[in-house]
Write a structure and sequence with these properties.
The chain is α/β, with parallel strands linked by helices. The chain folds into 2 domains: about 400 residues, 3-Layer(aba) Sandwich (Rossmann fold); about 110 residues, no CATH class. Helix content is about 20%, strand content about 20%. The strands form 5 sheets. Strands 1, 4, 5, 6, 7, 8, 9, 10, 11, 12, 13, 14, 17 and 18 form a 14-stranded mixed sheet that branches. Strand 19 and strand 20 form a beta hairpin. Helix 2 packs across helix 7 and helix 10 runs antiparallel to helix 11.
């Protein structure tokens, strides 16, 4: 029997480990009172079961609460709790030993865990939080679905997940809906926000029954694409019954672990096939994959066997990846339960951004750049501020990534549905795009200051957030949450903050004899927004919004 333990807890506050900000689980957003809506069965919409090692696995039960129309814009809200089984593998010790997964050659191998693996079946429960919230337009549905997949985090045992019927707060029916989800709803999409028990620490919430009959507790279901694919199938069945037509396209939005979980679907495409010959998911929007993983390499006898034939490449589902360039996280020797550095493959780096670039480079080398795009974005760490009003909370100030995601939704849909290719990959890494051309949003192309990770009041726990230091000429450059100075002018020493005029001259945005003026700022924002709009990275509405805000934005001293 496994002995449950939580190793190295003392390091959690000292190490820059990515689980701290790798995607706040949607479960943590729910803080309302227990809902009083009646629960009814939704078992008639269950996904088909499948066979695994001679055993039948899949969804077993579905319970549902219908909250009705919950918003003046006529969005309908449904809560669903789902119970069922998954087939997969465990390791009994080492990195990711609380991860029950159906993709061990990626989840364990790329984390340096080469210990024996044991196959089994795990039963998950809606009563322990495995669930989803479905929102859809009461009228004007575009026939399409976005499935939202969060990052690591969420434990029923720790109290960060609730039973499925304790998420809806009737007094605040839309307060937990993020900016990204609102953008999707406004375009006519149905949105299914999934929840899974995905805490990184041991013990996990579930017990796996191994093929030899042994019970192995403490497992979580963070790395099982089939769980989300089955939820997508269930939602498709429900929407067809409720709205009278099939879902024409289903897209996967994943952040952090939710993003690399989506990449796994492309590495095991048989899981994405439905009985009618169609795919469950038609396109992926991968928002800053956790750890930059998983790299598309699968070694057998010294050879990489992944995506080597035209048939395999043809099954790859179109994917747009958004890489957050300012996220400084890495795996360290103090966190061996995450990654065992001495035994990771040669193609894996402890540095997250390096893995993102390696992945994009490998896709290109394998001839999959026609189906994969990666866009690095300057000035944003792991969190995009989708649940922060105006991108601010206390000393946290985040570049509002929701405006880029709004455009990326259209880029993906047009690529999948109409064959309109998005712009080529953009990165500052040599060999990816031929030049340093990562995305500069107006906030970084026309800077009024510098975004930096580790806001001062958040210590190392702020690795995925950002603070903001203005070019106001007042005082010294600030110190971040690690007590390291923010090198705003990139000269390697701590000195007085520049004024806007000094900073813009240094950056080449002003001539040596020019002075910063609002007109210069507005012109810069307008030019940057127009460039982004030309390539469809932002919508016309967002481009106009940037210019209007620049005209009235409060500016620091010149």
């Amino acid at each position: 029997m496994k002995q449950s333990s939580i190793p190295f807890r003392l390091f959690l506050c000292l190490s820059a480990v990515h689980w701290l900000w790798s995607g706040r689980p949607q479960a943590l957003q729910a803080a309302g009172p227990p809902d009083q809506l009646p629960a009814v069965s939704c078992a008639q919409f269950l996904a088909p079961k499948r066979n695994a090692n001679g055993k039948t696995v899949g969804q077993e039960d579905c319970r549902m609460q219908d909250a009705g129309v919950v918003d003046p814009r006529k969005y309908h809200r449904i809560e669903m709790g789902i119970t069922g089984t998954l087939a997969g593998w465990i390791v009994k010790e080492g990195a990711r030993s609380n991860h029950f997964t159906s993709a061990p050659d990626f989840v364990y191998t790329q984390m340096g865990n080469n210990r024996p693996r044991f196959h089994g079946v795990l039963r998950y429960e809606g009563s322990k939080g495995t669930s989803l919230t479905l929102l859809y337009p009461e009228t004007g549905w575009n026939g399409k679905l976005f499935v939202m997949v969060h990052g690591v985090g969420g434990s029923f045992l720790k109290g960060t997940m609730k039973p499925w019927d304790r998420y809806f707060d009737p007094s605040k029916p839309m307060d937990d809906v993020t900016k990204y989800e609102k953008a999707m709803l406004a375009k006519g999409y149905a949105v299914a926000r999934t929840r899974r028990n995905a805490d990184r620490e041991t013990p996990g919430d579930y017990t796996a029954t191994l093929d030899n009959g042994e019970e192995w507790p403490g497992q979580n279901i963070n790395q099982n694409p089939e769980l989300i694919l089955d939820m997508a199938k269930l939602v498709k069945n429900f929407l067809k019954d409720r709205l009278g037509r099939d879902v024409s396209r289903a897209y996967w939005y994943g952040h952090s672990a939710g993003a690399h979980l989506g990449l796994l679907v492309n590495y095991m495409p048989e899981a994405n096939q439905e009985g009618n010959g169609k795919t469950t998911i038609d396109g992926f929007l991968a928002d800053d994959p956790g750890g930059g993983l998983y790299v598309p390499i699968l070694m057998r006898n010294g050879q990489d066997i992944l995506f080597r034939t035209p048939e395999e490449k043809a099954k790859f589902i179109k994917t747009i990846e958004i890489a957050h360039q300012l996220y400084p996280a890495y795996y360290s020797k103090e966190t061996p339960w995450e990654m065992e550095l001495k035994t990771i493959p040669k193609f894996i780096s402890p540095i997250y951004l390096a893995n993102k670039r390696t992945g994009a480079r490998v896709f290109k080398e394998k001839g999959l750049d026609s189906r994969f795009r990666m866009y690095e974005v300057k000035g944003v760490s792991h969190n995009g501020g989708e649940d922060l009003e105006n991108g601010k909370r206390g000393d946290i100030e985040i570049l509002d990534l929701s405006r880029l995601i709004d455009g990326a939704i259209d880029l993906l849909d047009n690529w999948v549905d109409k064959g309109i290719e998005p712009p080529a990959t953009k990165s500052d890494s040599p060999g990816l795009s031929g030049k340093k051309d990562s995305l500069d949003l107006p906030e970084t192309a026309c800077p009024l200051g510098v975004y930096f990770p580790y806001p001062p009041l958040h210590s190392v726990g702020g690795v995925g957030m950002t603070g903001f230091a203005a070019f106001d000429g007042a005082g010294l450059e600030p110190v971040d949450g690690r007590m390291v100075f923010v090198d705003m002018n990139a000269n390697g020493r701590r000195d007085k903050r520049e004024t806007l005029t000094q900073a813009w001259r240094r950056l080449g945005l002003l001539k040596p004899d020019e002075t910063f003026q609002r007109a210069k700022y507005v012109a810069c924002v307008q030019e940057t927004a127009a460039k982004l709009r030309k390539e469809n990275f932002i919508t016309e509405k967002v481009a106009d919004q940037y210019v209007q805000e620049a005209a009235k934005k409060e500016l620091p001293e010149k």
